[in-house]
Specification:
Elements lengths: L6 H11 L3 H6 L29 E6 L16 H10 L4 E2 L2 E2 L4 E7 L5 E6 L6 E2 L11 E2 L19 E7 L13 H13 L7 H4 L1 E7 L4 E6 L16 H4 L19 E7 L4 E6 L13 E6 L3 H9 L5 E4 L5 H6 L5 E15 L5 H10 L2 H9 L6 E2 L45 H4 L5 E5 L4 H16 L4 E5 L2 H8 L7 E6 L3 H5 L17 H11 L5 H15 L2 E13 L3 E2 L19 E2 L2
Parallel strand pairs: 1-13, 1-14, 17-18, 17-19
Antiparallel strand pairs: 2-3, 4-5, 4-8, 5-6, 7-9, 8-10, 9-10, 11-12, 12-13, 14-20, 15-19, 15-20, 16-20, 21-22
Helix pairs in contact: 10-12, 15-16
């Protein structure tokens, strides 16, 4: 992957990372400048409410094996999304308008008429009774593909436009205003970077325009995107990151924030991520604690000692064989398990002929691979059909599948015992392939690496010549998968269904690890994106597709273990009434 470098920019980021954030904030870089616009917004200094006493919360997490970019498949995880929620601004949060960031959002039809309005009075949206065709005078900031021609062309009128009016005080933690430049940066990056998380909505954007010093932003679409409210979450600071490869821009830290917290440091050796309260946060409800310290829990014994001694107050981790029982014995603790959206999957490359893909699927033993990969037989949630898909309804609280006994898993006939199923014929095509089968994996996640090794050994046991290719996710998505240089990949994924099967955009793969592209499927995906097809209809189509094509086999869904100690006050005294994980951590406070 081409690595873009900007020496002066990297020096600023480096200074911030090694601990002189205060000096960076004192002399922030210039705000993004709007061409031909005299209404530039000045940085705003926010006066925060004095605090009586410094407070902190210490919390437990899984070890971090990635960078911190919430828009990359390579970095995506439950905790990285939590961190982004705490530090980076989003237009909508849990389906409701973030009125700290945005005063109003208007949805316009192809005639420029306002058809819906979302504001503080109607945070989930309100259909406009009287339409208006008024548009502010604006400046276009059209992003082009990296290989596009700069020549001006006549563009068709947009099918939909969404107008965002940003709050005047919205700013980054170094004092730089949040403007159209940050929207354009995220759009351009999602357009031009392989291996991004759920980029299909961004691919439908044709232009971004602005007025009012970059505080009024109009986004044009070539489709009537139904789920446009999911776009522009975790907006990134363009003035710090522009010129740096999007794939590596947040590899070690999040340099500036526009959330309730800023990321102070990450000590990889100690496994400690420290967030400080953002004193430039302009919103109505600043953080209730001064610091959040996220500590990596590397063993059950360590976790028990920390929570028993009051050194951490809550943890959200991957369970081990006996961790649920062990934590339940600690006095004063509450324990809960839940299934998550992240699936462990094996994805065959569309370059591999279909008969060989079907043979590969017939060998996959979900129960065996899952038990070895997660190193446990309990608290496992297996997917009960080939090509199993994960939707919002798949996730539930207090729902765990015990897998101590052999588990029959779908049409593959896999028993989870490691024995060859009786209805499975020998994989003659794979056995007689004139080269080794290549299994690709990003080994940074130990669970995924173990699953890949188990798959390789299963193939060897079936007489298949096979080799494992270790590469980071960016290399897999940019080079190895599209060129057919791996025959299958093993990965965890939280990508949505539509993006997992969407055709490449301008030759780049987004969240589709198979590289599969079929016109009929893409038409249905487009209809789903525009609200003409339901999620159930999309799921049904993809289930039939998988039966025929044997591309993506989700074998297990992540299970989470949450442990509540005695040092924190949260949404409810009963842990079972809490939202998932750290969804509301910005409202918690310490009892000490």
């Amino acid at each position: 992957m081409t690595k873009l470098r900007c020496a002066s920019l990297l020096s600023v980021v480096a200074v911030c990372v090694i601990g002189t954030l205060a000096s960076c904030a004192a002399s922030p870089g210039p705000a993004p400048i709007e061409e031909s616009n005299n209404e530039a917004t000045q940085p705003t200094t926010t006066t925060t409410t004095p605090r009586k006493q410094a407070k902190e919360l210490a919390l437990g997490i899984d070890p971090v094996h990635s960078g911190f970019n919430p828009h990359l498949l390579a970095d995506d995880s439950r905790f990285i999304q939590t961190l982004a929620r705490l530090t980076l601004p989003s237009i909508f949060v849990d389906g409701r308008l973030n009125t700290d960031l945005v005063v109003m959002v208007e949805e316009l039809n192809r005639n420029g008429e306002v058809v819906s309005v979302t504001n503080a009075q109607h945070p989930e949206g309100h259909t406009s009774q009287s339409v208006s065709a008024a548009r502010p005078t604006s400046t276009s900031t059209t992003a082009k593909p990296a290989d596009s021609n700069d020549a001006e062309t006549d563009k068709p009128a947009p099918v939909k436009t969404v107008r965002y009016r940003l709050a005047s005080g919205a700013q980054w933690s170094d004092g730089t205003p949040i403007t159209v430049a940050d929207f354009e940066y995220l759009w351009s990056s999602m357009l031009n970077t392989p291996g991004t998380l759920n980029p299909a909505g961004y691919w439908a954007i044709t232009d971004i325009r602005s007025s009012g010093g970059g505080k009024t932003i109009e986004v044009d679409f070539n489709k009537d995107i139904a789920e446009w409210r999911t776009l522009f979450d975790h907006i990134l600071p363009s003035h710090v990151l522009r010129g740096v490869s999007f794939a590596t821009a947040l590899s070690s830290t999040i340099p500036v924030s526009a959330g309730k917290f800023t990321m102070k440091s990450y000590d990889r050796n100690r496994g400690l991520i420290t967030l400080n309260r953002n004193d430039r946060f302009w919103g109505k409800e600043p953080a209730l604690v001064e610091n959040l310290n996220f500590r990596e829990i590397r063993s059950t014994d360590q976790g028990i000692e920390l929570i028993q001694n009051g050194q951490i107050s809550f943890m959200d981790v991957t369970p081990t064989e006996t961790s649920k029982e062990a934590y339940s014995l600690v006095p004063g603790t509450q324990v809960r398990t839940e299934t998550d959206k992240y699936g462990l999957e094996i994805v065959a490359n569309s370059h591999l002929p279909k008969p060989l893909r079907k043979e590969l699927r017939s060998i996959i033993d979900p129960g065996l691979i899952t038990r070895i990969a997660y190193n446990r037989r309990t608290d496992l949630t297996l997917v009960d059909k080939p090509g199993g898909t994960i939707t919002g309804s798949s996730m539930s609280l207090e729902t765990t599948t015990e897998a101590a006994e052999p588990t029959v898993t779908g049409e593959t006939g896999a028993t989870g015992t490691g024995e060859t199923p009786e209805n499975t014929t020998d994989p003659i095509g794979l056995q007689t392939l004139n080269r080794p089968l290549i299994i690709g994996v990003d080994p940074s996640d130990p669970v995924v690496a173990s699953a890949a090794k188990t798959l390789v050994n299963s193939l060897i046991r079936h007489g298949v010549r096979v080799t494992m290719k270790s590469a980071d996710t960016n290399e897999l998505m940019q080079t190895l998968i599209p060129r057919g240089q791996v025959d299958a990949v093993v990965a965890k994924s939280g990508a949505n269904l539509a993006d997992s099967y969407a055709c490449p955009n301008i030759g780049l793969l987004g969240s589709n690890r198979s590289g599969f592209c079929q016109a009929d499927t893409q038409i249905l995906i487009n209809e789903y994106l525009t609200g003409k097809k339901t999620e159930d209809e999309l799921t049904e189509h993809l289930a039939h597709l998988e039966t025929d094509e044997a591309l993506r086999t989700v074998i297990a869904i992540d299970t989470r273990l949450e442990v509540l100690g005695t040092g924190v006050t949260g949404p409810d005294p009963d842990l079972n009434q809490w939202p998932r994980g750290y969804a509301t951590v910005d409202t918690w406070h310490s009892k000490n």
